[in-house]
Specification:
2 domains, FAD/NAD(P)-binding domain, 24% strand, alpha/beta, NADH dehydrogenase activity, NDH-2
Length: 441
């Protein structure tokens, strides 16, 4: 007769993004009472659905609706708001730093590493000081207020050079994140000019800088070329095969010799696996990702699981063409991997064998602003309005929880009736400024 465990298995999930949330949801749904305890650790108390960040930044979606509160949906899990500092698997221990600064050691029996990716910054002068990312809800809100504040400032200045600088917006990176952010914010800024009597849409300058020779590498090259043509028709300047050399003091210098001043520099040029992985005793590849098997277990460590952007998961749908192929870092794979991962943990806990992750890429979709999009999905090339509908339908389906799906759908319906809000809430970026001013008067 098999021995009965006196204590539940301790499952520790590092990261509350796609993989962390969906894994925890799967476990809390399938685990029996007292079979295991689940703890999830993340610096933020919510999961952010990143594909909707550009629409949140442009005012098409209420920012709170693109995040899922972890404590609200993970009622059978322990949620710890803290940052992971170190992983010591030999001791089965993780060091975390809580919001108040205290350090804590968490022990586990089963570990899930879902720390995702962070922005990949290059050693470009001025980038750290001038650049703005768009990977978090805070950055999306900041960008929206920042862009609209620049319009307010430009409408109030008499200095033509300053006005030109204020109305010049630069996006670096031609992947999905960069193109969608550029298209949505450009759409919003030009729509907003109808409320400024002294700013014409042609006064606003949007610039895209991409070091590679094409944009949107996830879709067919012909669709990438079509997208560039659509952006240029909207007056957006596109620099391909061009690198950024400097952003010092907002002065942009490109590798082809182009120079201009810009008060807004949005950096979306790639991501890298969370650097915390380098501070662990787990195997990582040359790109800093955890080496994983198709079962989503870390190589050599069957009690450590991983998926998503921080994992080098073999892509079984492409291994015949390329034995070293790994799944691309996108939401499509992260969500599906998490579902397989949670099911595999349950199987192993109950004495079974894990199943391999296999998913053939369905394609990619991108929104290019209101009523505009591009998609390479199900072996079809889709452009314009149909692609925009496909983009919204796909991501609405993938958005976690019925609550959030409904709120986003209502946001879109209200936006269609009353148009998007274009008011700047720039005070959010420095909320104590007026209080400090009052204290001096």
């Amino acid at each position: 007769m098999a021995a009965v465990k006196s204590e539940p298995t301790r499952i520790l999930i590092l990261g509350g993004g796609y993989v962390g949330l969906y894994t925890a949801l799967g476990l809390q749904k399938k685990l029996r009472a007292n079979e295991a305890s689940v703890t999830i650790v993340d610096p933020q108390p919510h999961m952010t659905y990143q594909p909707f960040l550009p629409e949140a930044a442009a005012g098409a979606i209420e920012p709170r609706h693109v995040v899922v509160p972890l404590r609200r949906v993970l009622k059978r899990c322990h949620v710890l708001t803290a940052r992971v500092n170190k992983i010591e698997h030999e001791r089965k221990s993780v060091t975390v730093e809580a919001a108040d600064g205290h350090i804590e050691q968490l022990n586990y029996d089963v570990l899930v590493v879902a720390l995702g990716a962070v922005a990949r910054l290059l050693p470009i002068p001025g980038l750290a000081e001038q650049g703005i990312g768009i990977k978090t809800i805070g950055e999306a809100i900041y960008l929206r207020n920042h862009v609209l504040t620049k319009l307010d400032q430009a409408s109030s200045t008499l200095d033509p050079e300053l006005r030109k600088r204020l109305l010049t917006f630069t996006v670096v990176g031609g992947g999905f994140a960069g193109i969608e952010a550029l298209a949505e914010l450009e759409d919003m800024s030009r729509f907003a000019t109808r409320y400024y009597e002294n700013i014409h849409p042609s006064d606003i300058r949007w610039v895209l800088v991409e070091a590679a020779g094409r944009i949107l590498p996830e879709v067919r090259e012909t669709l990438g070329v079509w997208t560039v043509e659509q952006l240029e028709r909207r007056g957006i300047e596109v620099f391909l095969s061009t690198a950024a050399k400097s952003f010092e003091n907002g002065h942009v210098v490109l590798s082809d010799g182009t120079e201009f001043d810009s008060d807004t520099i949005i950096w979306t040029a790639g991501v890298k696996a969370n650097p915390v992985l380098a501070n662990s005793d787990l195997p990582i590849d040359k790109r800093g990702r955890l080496e994983a098997m198709a079962s989503l277990q870390v190589v050599g460590h069957p009690d450590v699981w991983t998926a998503g952007d921080n994992a080098a998961v073999p892509d079984l749908s492409r291994t015949e063409q390329d034995p070293t192929a790994t799944t691309p870092p996108n939401a499509q794979h992260a969500v599906r991997q998490a579902r397989v991962l949670s099911a595999n943990i349950i199987r192993v806990l109950r004495g079974g064998q894990p199943k391999d992750y296999f998913h053939k890429n369905l394609g990619a979709v991108a929104g290019l602003g209101l009523h505009k999009g591009v998609a390479d999905a199900l072996n079809l090339k889709i452009k314009g309005f149909p692609a925009w509908l496909f983009h919204r339908a796909y991501h609405l389906k993938a958005m976690p929880t019925f609550n959030r799906k409904t709120r986003i759908l209502l946001d879109w319906m209200l936006g269609g009736l009353f148009r998007r809000e274009v008011v700047s809430l720039g005070q959010i970026n420095n909320p104590k400024e007026e209080f400090a001013r009052a204290s001096k008067s």
